[in-house]
Amino acid sequence: MTVSLLTVAAIYFLTPVYWLAVSATKSSGDLFGTFGFWFSDPHPVDYLGDVLTYDDGIYVRWFANSLLYAGIGAVAATLLSAAAGYALAKYSFPGREAIFNVVLAGVLLPGTALALPLYLLFSEMELANTYWAVLIPSVVSPFGVYLCRIYATAAVPDSLLEAARIDGAGELRIFATLGLRLMTPALVTVFLFQFVHIWNNFFLPLVMLSDSDLYPIQLGLTSWQGYADRQPELYQYTVGGAFLSVLPLMVLMGVLQRYWRTGLTEGSVKS
Fold it and tell me: In this predicted model, what pLDDT tens digit does every residue of 213-225 receive, in sequence order?
């Protein structure tokens, strides 16, 4: 029964990826004139090459922008969440629970509700339509702070921290050498979630950016789709670009999944 359910779930999630891989090998005419789930005169190298070279290689620039936004934003959000979660878990100070409750409220707020206020704020600071307009909001992750606090409470023993203090280690060194290392599975989870969130984020760049040179992939592909009625080849470029855009996420998931397995099995048996 379990295997059957997992098989159905796998088919459900992999079918769109299969359709995308097949469609990336077709011309714009074959996209609408042939069966969607099978190949028709495939030329994947030629078509994907056209995607990369169209309009002086604007897709490559969008790809680099997405890597910049998602890479820097995810690393900064992970470190910030680790520091905040560790502090909330291991230090007692007035207002600690109130701050944590505010963080929990932030988890429930949809990003779209904050996009317009952020745009007005960044416009006042003359940062709208710059890289900073997307990067700065991306380094905040309430879910990351929540997860890091829960994980630090369970995975970082107070006795180990006390032993390090007796040996003369400072708080910053304890956090950098012990806290971050013991929290690695949680940090990998926060990094991956935040990377995927920023990579797929469409609404914030749509509100913040007007210069197409600053677009991430998702926004750039949407602009191509908007012109496809007048330039039909853009249908194929949009599908090919979407296929290329999922490859980094698949590689990242495959590389980092072993850290998840390590974290999930911790504490599952008695010591």
Answer: 999 999 999 999 9
